[in-house]
Specification:
about 425 residues; Beta-Lactamase; 3 domains; five-stranded antiparallel sheet; four-stranded antiparallel sheet; about 45% helix
């Protein structure tokens, strides 16, 4: 982190507004501040001393839209918590939040209207400051390391070997899994979040899980890379992936104010024992992510536990069986396919299926009889059941979110 650069940004705004100014990151840490007037409210003093914005102040800020506003706006004071009126300058780079600049009123009666109008007309200057803050925070440092580049090359297929540094860190970790996550791709039509959001969120989540700054083999982010479709990182098996993803989701929400980030879709590979296994592990993790996106019955994010979708990832077919096609084309076919899949997926008796579907048991049997009439075979016969059940899952698989190839190759992996 370049503290001098952050101080310069604060000084520029302070000189322009002739008021005390502070700079916070998206998690509430106070990064820099200026004092050019003798007045300061209790909230500002507490924040500067603790290097963190008090929770009550953050709640007040959130009530006034700080997490969703993208342009300069004013926030009223709150005498109960010792807060003077202030102006918030959200700092965004390509739609991703990197922090907030706060311009404090000199007193409760200080008229901020002219200052607000001036700052609102200074949008190009604010965008420039946001870029300076991003660079000062070291946003691009982690992406440029040898190990991160090695991972990207291995995953993309551009290389089958890694540097000694990568191999050494990989060996030290011993029991590694590869995780692929997406901030928004839960269907083929959705757009994912910017690469910068993933990159910053990975850093935030790692820092939250390991506040001492340990990014070695014991930290979740051994190596990683991001692009505009997803993020990829290696994690030791003993680290709770669910905990890390929860922190990642929180970090994405802070960075983007995008509710798509409320739940981060992700997939986890089998254990990887050597660097050259990263490409296979990457395919496994993507397959697990895709399977969970299309099938809500899959609870686990582990590749080993996604069942038949492991096979679909390696099939070139794009057509279901003829029996399933006949059923889908028949009147009411879509509804009967839904009922049939529920029958196949339920471990209990037909009565349980009926209860889950909110219908009478006899109605379920009537649908099964109608399905038999349409396809010319008993849908509960073991071989027919296997064919239709796998076919129904395959139809889900055809709707999986798609990913282009990672940067570094023009040839996308077959599973995409």
């Amino acid at each position: 982190m370049n503290q001098h650069e952050l101080d310069e940004v604060v000084s520029l705004v302070s000189a322009r507004t002739i008021r005390n100014v502070s700079l916070d990151d998206v998690t509430g840490r106070v990064l820099a501040y200026s004092t050019i007037t003798p007045t300061a409210d209790r909230v500002r003093i507490d924040a500067v001393l603790a290097k963190e914005v008090p929770s009550g102040t953050r709640s007040w800020e959130a009530q006034h839209g700080v997490n969703s506003r993208t342009r300069v706006f004013s926030v009223p004071g709150d005498p109960q918590i010792g807060l003077l009126p202030r102006i918030c300058i959200p700092l965004l780079v390509r739609g991703v939040r990197v922090g907030y600049i706060w311009v404090q009123a000199n007193c409760a009666d200080d008229d901020l209207r002219s200052t607000l109008e001036d700052l609102q007309s200074w949008q190009s200057g604010i965008e420039h400051l946001a870029g300076r803050v991003l660079v000062a925070l070291g946003a691009n440092v982690e992406q440029g390391t040898v190990c991160n580049n090695d991972l990207q090359d291995l995953v993309s297929g551009r290389s089958e070997s890694a540097s000694d540094e990568f191999a050494a860190r990989f060996e030290a970790a011993s029991d590694v899994r590869l995780v692929v996550f997406s901030g928004g791709a839960t269907s083929r039509s959705e757009q994912t979040l910017p690469s910068l959001a993933y990159r910053q969120a990975l850093h935030d989540a790692s820092r939250a899980l390991f506040p001492t700054g340990d990014f070695g083999p014991d930290a979740p982010q051994i190596v990683s890379f991001t692009d505009d479709q997803h993020g990829v990182f290696l994690i030791r098996s003993h680290v709770s992936i669910d905990d890390f993803i929860a922190k990642l989701s929180h970090a994405l929400r802070l960075r983007t104010a995008d509710m798509r980030a409320a739940v981060v879709p992700y997939g986890v590979s089998a254990v990887v024992h050597e660097p050259r296994g990263c490409r296979t592990a990457y395919r496994q993790a993507v397959t697990a992510l895709q399977a969970r996106a299309v099938d809500p019955d899959i609870g686990s994010a582990l590749f080993e536990e996604i069942g038949i979708y492991q096979l679909f990832a390696h099939t070139a077919s794009t057509h279901p069986s003829q029996r399933l096609l006949n059923l889908s084309r028949a009147p009411g076919g879509t509804e009967r396919m839904r009922i049939l899949e529920q029958v196949y997926s339920s471990p209990g008796p037909v009565q349980r299926v009926a209860d889950e579907l909110h219908m009478h048991r006899s109605s379920v049997y009537n649908h099964l009889q109608r399905i038999e009439d349409i396809i010319g075979a008993d849908p509960l016969h073991p071989l027919v059941r296997l064919e239709l059940h796998s076919g129904l899952k395959f139809l889900r698989w055809l709707e999986r979110p798609r990913f282009g190839s990672p940067a570094g190759t023009n040839r996308p992996p077959d599973i995409f």
